[in-house]
Design brief:
The protein is of the alpha/beta class. It contains 17 helices and 13 strands. It has two domains: about 210 residues, Glycogen Phosphorylase B (Rossmann fold, 3-Layer(aba) Sandwich); about 200 residues, Glycogen Phosphorylase B (Rossmann fold, 3-Layer(aba) Sandwich), CATH 3.40.50.2000.
């Protein structure tokens, strides 16, 4: 048994959080002792495994501000994680063998001060590429933060990335690490059990909860309410469909936008307001249903009910939602850039499209007007994800990485 501690900035609801929880569950299933340390954990806004006792969670450093007047988010995220790293390295009574950290790499040099620890860093995507350029002062502010991200990432004993796309971006972004750090690809997985069997009543319950009839054609978008997710494209596509499909079919069509929504995040609040205003401007507001942080039960019901999933981010490094959709037999229409090119098989499990309303719309017309096509794509999607993104494959690969790290410790001990 290996003691593995997961150090994560904020155990909320999102793709990164889902990945670390799945990683913890995978290692727990392998017989290891797993636990979490985080700087924030709101039990009203988190995945159930972190609040029902399945995965122990310790919160440290939550007293440190997240920002000052809506600024310096990265700086304070680094401060919070460095504080948490000191706790993990020197003050926790859990005495972990391996620390699995992600998102914020600044904690790694602190963890390395404890020579008995092995540090595994999961790079979802370089943080410096996610930061929005906002002028000279922002660029100057980011220079030391970006430098620290690169140097501290190189301090990990092992680096994993979520896709070949991210591996390429890692190499082109962190040039100082060239020849020194070669990340391994570990695709996220999906718990198929919650997607495989959903009763007709559950589907009808989902439709009832969003207030549409059982014969509705549901187009589904699942993404946090963030501008980088390109959610305007989903509404623009809906407007395109209004003129592209017969009127009697249009009457049954609804776009459900289910987004992660956190009242602490100003962008979530502002962007939802922008999307609502945009739907009104295009004259399709009565066809758009906005959901804030829907429950897993509702999300699964919608995935089984939806005609298609619209996945609109451009250059997304992986994207777990398309995998979940295909697990539920829901075809995926996604932008033909980044992670979806490694998960969606174009013309087989869905469609890869240009980032435009007409390209997305043309793909959706095929699915809406051809039920047999979307059924076939749904079945192909299930087969595809089971063969490539199973929890068993994920668990075996991650377990091998953890055991490899510990074998390094044993080798050093023998030499001494």
């Amino acid at each position: 048994m290996v003691k593995v501690l997961f150090l994560h900035p904020d155990l909320g609801i999102g793709g990164a959080e889902r990945l670390v929880i799945d990683a913890a569950l995978a290692l727990k299933a392998k017989g290891h002792d797993v636990s979490f340390v985080t700087t924030h954990h709101d039990t009203s806004h988190c995945f159930k495994e972190t609040k029902d006792g399945t995965l122990p969670v310790k919160v440290v450093g939550d007293w440190i501000p997240r920002n000052i007047c809506g600024r310096f988010y990265a700086l304070f995220a680094y401060m919070r994680m460095i504080y948490a790293a000191f706790y993990v390295a020197f003050f926790t009574d859990q005495r972990p063998d391996v620390v699995f950290c992600d998102i914020v790499s600044a904690c790694i040099p602190i963890l390395r001060l404890n020579r008995s620890l092995r540090v595994l860093f999961y790079c979802h995507f370089p943080d410096q590429l996610l930061s929005k350029p906002e002028g000279l002062l922002k660029r100057l502010y980011r220079i030391p933060i970006d430098w620290l991200e690169e140097i501290s990432t190189g301090c990990a004993h092992k680096v994993l990335v979520n896709s070949n796309f991210t591996a390429g971006v890692f190499a082109s972004t962190f040039k100082r690490l060239s020849g020194k750090v070669t990340p391994s690809v570990l695709y996220p997985c999906v718990d198929f059990s919650k997607f495989e069997t959903v009763s007709l009543d559950s589907k009808n319950d989902a439709l009832k909860e969003i207030g549409v009839s059982t014969d509705a054609v549901v187009l589904l978008s699942i993404n946090r309410y963030e501008r980088k997710k390109n959610l305007f494209l989903a509404i623009d596509t809906l407007k395109y469909l209004k003129d592209a499909i017969p009127g009697n079919v249009w009457e049954t069509v609804y776009l459900v936008m289910a987004g992660g929504y956190d009242l602490r995040v100003t962008e979530n609040i502002d962007h939802l307001d922008e999307l609502i205003a945009h739907s009104k401007k295009l004259g399709v507001a009565d066809k758009v249903i906005f959901l804030k942080s829907p429950s897993d039960h509702l999300k699964v019901g919608l995935l089984h009910t939806a005609c298609c999933l619209l996945y609109t981010p451009s250059g997304e490094h992986f994207g777990i939602v398309p995998i979940e959709a295909m697990s539920a037999g829901c075809p995926v229409v996604a932008v033909n850039v980044g992670g979806p090119t490694e998960t969606v098989v174009d013309g087989v499990t869905g469609f890869l499209c240009d980032s435009s309303a007409d390209s997305f719309g043309d793909a959706l017309v095929k699915c809406i007007l051809n039920p047999s096509l979307r059924k076939k794509m749904g079945e192909e999607g299930k087969r595809h994800v089971k063969s490539s993104f199973s929890s068993e494959t994920f668990a075996d690969s991650l377990n091998a990485e953890v055991e490899s790290l510990l074998s390094g410790i044993k080798s050093i001990a023998k030499e001494n």
